[in-house]
């Protein structure tokens, strides 16, 4: 009876589906365990062998926890909104919802491409997902809840006093009773103070504008990464080297009115929460750096530009006016007397107001140039020094000295206030900037305020110096100087102590079609929320997915996209009268909207009313194990923690943190195949024949190269039309040998290996074991198909412990000590490995165990039945088949995991090396419980000892029980 993986795997995959073997219960008496994978974006390219790595690991763990008696929730779904589907729609004219559905379910798209389908590919690998809980973020029954969460955010503000989000009605009540003077909230800067009487006297639209400055999601003019080629705003993590990650289009900085989320309100809680979760230190550190907590002071410098260029900064709210000040956050207020110049970000709102006529052209040219550099690029480039003097000056708060104001792209508009007080004697970047522009108009001599030599560089330390040339701070150090400056700034109302965070509010608008529609319509330019009972607001049909001719987002092409407040439905845009029918929001939500709460929907995916019931949320609480890529450290993982904390504040989420334990799987890299074309020809030379020829290395399809690196020349010629007449210089054996290079697995490098092909040839259990065997889960490792045959051979050897050509050979013989030792070594090792996520060493132990049992000729049921259970999490199909053929009627998936018994590993005998004058001559096996005297008696009577001694009596017999025997003299 031979091992037939295709037949076995199809049988058990059907069994699991029919019997809902892996369906989790929402009210079980068993302890719960929630295991989650970062769900995939379903592209048409489908899965390659690198994608399932984390899924296999989480599946091994999920199956193991079921064996341990847990009620395991292990769901899967699709992050199905996103830019790739929209770009494909633009290129081919297909509807994104159609291509997304085909990418998930499989089929043929309108271009005639055969799409495997993510669902079918996942099923073939034998994952224990509870498919009844599948979610797709682009389905209206899912995104209606995303829209509902957006409405909750809009209707909330962050109360610093209670340190949580509260309903906006509580803020209105405070305004009505006492105005805003004593309200401690996270809000926009420079909100004018008003009394209760003033608030109650404001017109309704003025009140709404003020509330927008406090809401957790709000409209604001924001600096964004604008990609003209894609017609949309991009997040920082969607930009690589100043161009869009998708398509490679240029990206510029520009101001747009956007929806934003006040994630900054949660900065401290996001920081503190990291101490409560089991994540890698590298991911935690990434988030700490992104949040960027700094302790220092806010300082106000009054602008001294000519009156004709300085306009009082007046907010159009009827709330009064403010003088023009440059506000600076500094972590070193003690160095304030060393301020030599100031630098604003090129995008700073004051630049246009304060720049003098003489400097205007140069400033505008510089702004245009820097708009083409992403913030990430500007932050990373510490070598390039550039800037322009604005011609303006600001007044030092203590000396009243005029300080020149520059702009420079090393200052970012979104970090702090977008302005720095430059102290070159204490900061290397300021020092380099001052020296670079030394002697130019607007750059004074560097002021030195520390008792150190700064002729070669800045002194940036906080210890080991005294302040000089610093008026009332002379003789002080960092701590005393900081406290004194803050106190003096507060006296003159030009500063105060402050904790600042690098974390900026998250832009939440995208000028795209394929995303969640906002449940928002506009009355007199002010946003209004559609009542939750009318959700979802479904994405409308459009003729084309490009922006409109006048630059509006793609939803501007929709004919039916207006809100009727009487019919309470979406109606034709032609009916807009701004009386009863109003325009709807044209932007859509970003890709991270639907992925910021999806784990909660899995808990109660069939709930038609709520995103999840309170009872179910209380039962599952949070994710016990989350596995996914580290590239989401400062995107998805940060946004998810933010939304979870918000929902906790509002009484919906049961826990503060969504993911207790996080593991980042490493990447499986492709092993590319390279062919070598002699320059200027269509002749390809084998790698081992190159001898000084100038060649061009070209990627070839790895599927036409064998495990010995030999290219199938005929298939290569048929692969692409331009290679049809290619000629080949082969080696001495008549072979064309390719070069190899380990790099990211991608279609562009033709190094993609699909799991479908592996499963078809070797079976899913082989794929699962091999991916776990490649190396530690968290490390990157190259894929090498050549190694997979060894794992397949192991499974065939495992099978032969149970079956020969005539059928089942398992017997009821009593297991030997060696049998039990081999089994229990494996139980111990595999249990520890799974709990420590060291899956690769488990596979090694399986191989050792099967080899030992084969050598022992073990076919005992008492050994082979528990062995099937132990291997089941890794190779579930063969384990189910073995379990069934051993006469069991239930699935192996919930059978208790075998318990390790130490007694089977306790050695009762010891093989001693017997040495004469330090040289080992033979070995002898003796019971471990013998005394020294008994050991000596046995050894001395052994005929091999007598032969070595040849009649002599040893001077000394050295015996260490359990270790050595040495006869001396």
From TrEMBL:
Its EC number is 6.1.1.4. Pfam families: Anticodon_1 (PF08264), tRNA-synt_1 (PF00133), tRNA-synt_1_2 (PF13603). A motif ('KMSKS' region) lies at residues 744-748. It comes from the Bacteria. Its main location: cytoplasm. It catalyses: tRNA(Leu) + L-leucine + ATP = L-leucyl-tRNA(Leu) + AMP + diphosphate. Belongs to the class-I aminoacyl-tRNA synthetase family. This is Leucine--tRNA ligase. It comes from Flavobacterium pokkalii.
């Amino acid at each position: 009876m031979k091992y037939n993986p295709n037949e076995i795997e199809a049988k058990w995959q059907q069994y699991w589906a029919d019997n809902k073997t892996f369906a989790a219960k929402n009210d079980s008496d068993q302890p719960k365990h929630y295991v989650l994978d970062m769900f995939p974006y379903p592209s048409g390219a489908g899965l390659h062998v690198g994608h399932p790595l984390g899924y296999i690991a989480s599946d091994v763990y999920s199956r193991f926890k079921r064996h341990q008696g847990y009620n395991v929730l292990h769901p899967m779904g699709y992050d199905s909104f996103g830019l790739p589907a929209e770009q494909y729609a633009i290129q081919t004219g297909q509807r994104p919802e159609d291509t997304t559905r085909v990418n998930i379910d499989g089929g043929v798209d309108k271009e005639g491409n055969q799409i495997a389908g993510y669902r079918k590919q996942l099923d073939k690998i034998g994952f224990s997902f509870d498919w009844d809980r599948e979610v797709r973020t682009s389905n209206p029954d899912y995104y209606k809840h995303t829209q509902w969460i957006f409405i909750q955010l809009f209707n909330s503000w962050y109360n610093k006093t209670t340190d949580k989000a509260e309903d906006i009605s509580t803020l209105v009540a405070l305004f009505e009773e006492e105005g805003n003077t004593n309200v401690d909230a996270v809000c926009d800067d420079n909100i004018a103070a008003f009394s209760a009487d003033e608030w109650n006297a404001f017109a309704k639209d003025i009140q709404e504008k003020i509330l927008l400055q406090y809401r957790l999601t709000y409209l604001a003019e924001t600096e964004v990464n604008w990609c003209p080629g894609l017609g949309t705003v991009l997040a920082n993590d969607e930009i690589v080297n100043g161009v869009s990650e998708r398509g490679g289009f240029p990206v510029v900085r520009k101001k747009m009115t956007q929806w934003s989320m006040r994630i900054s309100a949660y900065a401290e809680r996001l920081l503190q929460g990291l101490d409560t979760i089991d994540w890698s230190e590298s991911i935690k550190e990434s988030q700490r750096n992104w949040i960027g907590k700094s302790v220092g002071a806010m300082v106000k410098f009054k602008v001294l530009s000519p009156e004709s260029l300085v306009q009082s900064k007046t907010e159009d709210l009827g709330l009064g006016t403010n003088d023009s000040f440059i506000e600076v956050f500094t972590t070193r207020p003690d160095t304030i007397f060393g301020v030599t110049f100031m630098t604003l970000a090129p995008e700073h709102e004051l630049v246009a107001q304060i720049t003098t006529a003489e400097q205007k052209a140069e400033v505008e040219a510089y702004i245009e140039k820097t708009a083409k550099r992403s913030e990430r690029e500007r932050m990373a480039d510490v070598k390039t020094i550039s800037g322009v003097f604005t011609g303006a000056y600001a007044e030092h708060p203590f000396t009243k000295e005029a300080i020149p104001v520059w702009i420079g792209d090393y200052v970012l508009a979104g970090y702090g206030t977008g302005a720095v007080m430059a102290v070159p004697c204490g900061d290397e970047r300021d020092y380099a900037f001052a020296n670079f522009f030394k002697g130019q108009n607007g750059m004074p001599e560097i002021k030195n305020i520390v008792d150190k030599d700064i002729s070669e560089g800045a002194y940036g330390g906080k210890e080991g110096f005294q302040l000089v040339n610093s008026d009332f701070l002379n003789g002080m150090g960092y701590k005393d100087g900081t406290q004194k400056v803050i106190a003096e700034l507060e006296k003159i109302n030009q500063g105060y102590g402050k904790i600042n965070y690098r974390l900026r509010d998250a832009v939440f608008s995208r000028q795209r079609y394929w995303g969640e529609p906002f449940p928002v319509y506009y009355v007199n330019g002010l946003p209004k929320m559609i009542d939750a009972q009318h959700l979802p607001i479904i994405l409308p049909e459009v003729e084309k997915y490009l922006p409109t001719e006048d630059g509006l987002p793609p939803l501007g092409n929709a004919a039916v996209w207006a809100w009727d407040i009487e019919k309470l439905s979406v109606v034709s845009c032609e009916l807009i009268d701004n009386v009863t029918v109003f325009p709807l929001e044209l932007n859509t939500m970003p890709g991270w909207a639907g992925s910021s709460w999806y784990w909660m929907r899995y808990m109660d995916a069939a709930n038609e009313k709520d995103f999840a019931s309170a009872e179910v949320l209380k039962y599952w609480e949070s994710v016990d194990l989350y596995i996914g890529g580290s590239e989401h450290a400062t995107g998805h993982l940060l946004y998810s923690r933010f939304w979870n904390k918000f929902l906790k504040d509002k009484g919906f989420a049961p826990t503060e943190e969504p993911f207790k334990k996080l593991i980042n799987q490493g990447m499986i890299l492709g092993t590319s195949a390279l062919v070598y074309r002699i320059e200027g020809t269509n002749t390809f030379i084998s790698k081992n024949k190159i001898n000084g020829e100038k060649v061009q290395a070209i990627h070839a399809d790895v599927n036409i190269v064998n495990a010995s690196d030999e290219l199938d020349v005929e298939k290569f010629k048929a692969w692409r039309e331009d290679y049809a007449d290619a000629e080949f210089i082969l080696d001495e054996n008549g072979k064309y040998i390719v070069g190899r290079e380990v790099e990211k697995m991608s279609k562009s490098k033709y190094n993609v290996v699909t799991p479908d092909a592996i499963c078809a040839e070797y079976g899913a259990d082989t794929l699962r074991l091999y991916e776990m065997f490649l190396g530690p889960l968290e490390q990157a490792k190259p894929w090498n198909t050549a190694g997979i045959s060894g794992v397949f051979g192991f499974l065939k050897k495992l099978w032969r412990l149970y079956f020969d050509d005539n059928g089942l050979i398992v017997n009821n013989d009593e297991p030997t000590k060696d049998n039990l030792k081999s089994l229990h070594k494996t139980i111990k090792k595999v249990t520890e490995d799974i709990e420590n996520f060291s899956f690769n060493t488990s596979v090694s132990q399986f191989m050792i165990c099967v080899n030992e049992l084969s050598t022992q000729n073990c076919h005992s049921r008492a050994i082979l039945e528990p062995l099937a259970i132990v291997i089941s999490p890794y190779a579930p199909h063969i384990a189910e088949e073995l379990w069934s053929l051993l006469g069991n009627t239930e699935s192996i998936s919930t059978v208790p995991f075998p318990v390790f018994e130490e007694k089977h590993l306790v050695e009762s005998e010891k093989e001693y090396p017997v040495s004469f004058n330090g040289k080992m001559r033979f070995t002898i096996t003796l019971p471990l419980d013998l005394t020294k005297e008994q050991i000596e008696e046995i050894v001395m009577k052994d005929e091999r000892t007598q032969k070595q001694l040849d009649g002599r009596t040893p001077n000394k017999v050295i015996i260490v029980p359990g270790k050595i025997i040495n006869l001396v003299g």
